[in-house]
Each structure stands twice: as structure tokens, then as C-alpha cells.
Amino acid sequence: MRIQRHLNIPNPKDNPDCILLRRLGMMIMALIAPELIVTWAMRQWFSTRLVTRRDYTWTQTHSFFVLMGGFMLYVDGKPYLTLRPDDILKLMREGCIDFPTPTARQIHDKSKGNAISKGLVMLQVAWPVMQLIAGAIYRLEATQL
Q: What is the pLDDT of residue 138?
């Protein structure tokens, strides 16, 4: 089975080797224990629901974007800090920043996933499921590989 996973946006202070090691680690983890990836995705989904409830002007798309590190604080025109949901609320209360208001369409515009890549993943997931259903219809035993 194949899982499509979107990594968080790397910190601008991370060097390329650190980013590469993080990606390799996630690939190895997905090969050894794919259920951890599913658990991680569920945790992110539940977290986005909490963020969305906290601020009713944001959609779940905004919440995913902030949780993956999409909002950056710039100081003197240079990236300084990746903002988490609590950081944004704190800085807004202190009057340091204005509330970020990108539209969901602007966030989707930055997405690197497209219909073709997502469609291929859906086909790769659906194929073993269809095989299991067909085997059950013909009363064949399912084998674990």
C-alpha cells in the first residue's frame, strides 16, 4: 500500500543535510511502520479541528497550513521564526502582528499536490482493496505478504 504524505515546511535555518535526513527518516518509518504515519496524520487532523474551533474565520485548510509551519515571522526582511497557532495568537494579543488573512484558494495555490498525484495514490490504495473484495466474492483466502 502507498501513502501520500505532505511534510511540514522546513525551518529556513535548517541546512539541506538536516532536511534530507528528516525526509529519509520519514521514508524509513513509513516502510517499517506505516501505521505510525496514519496515526500522525490523524493527530494532525484532530489538531486542525481544535485550531479551527478556536478561530472561526479560519477554515481547516488554514489550520493545516499553520500547523505545517506555513506562517513565518520576518525580522528586517529575513525569516526569523516559524509561527505555530499559539505564537500567532500571542503576537496578535500583544499587537506585534496583524491577523494573517490568506484565503483558502491562496493556500491551495501553494500546494505541490495535484489531481494526477492524488489520483495515482487513490488507485494504488484502491487496487488491494478491490483484490480483497474480489477474493471474498469468490471465497478465496486472503494471504498476508
A: 92
C-alpha cell at 3: 501513502
Q: So what's the pLDDT on residue 137?
A: 93
Angle at alpha carbon of residue 102, lines to 97 and 104, rounded to 5°: 145
How far, rounded to the nearest angstrom, does the alpha carbon of residue 97 sit from its chain's CA centroid?
25
The cell for 139 is 471465497
The separation between CA 85 and the C-alpha centre of its own chain, rounded to angstroms, equals 15
Q: What is the dihedral of CA 70, 64, 90, 55, to 10 degrees?
A: 140
**Intervals of the chain under pLDDT 70:** 1-7, 55-56, 110-113, 145
Q: What is the pTM of this model?
A: 0.60
Q: How far apart are CA 73 and CA 80, in angstroms?
A: 6
- Contacts within 8 Å (CB) and 24+ apart, 11-20: 11/69, 11/82, 12/72, 12/79, 12/82, 13/79
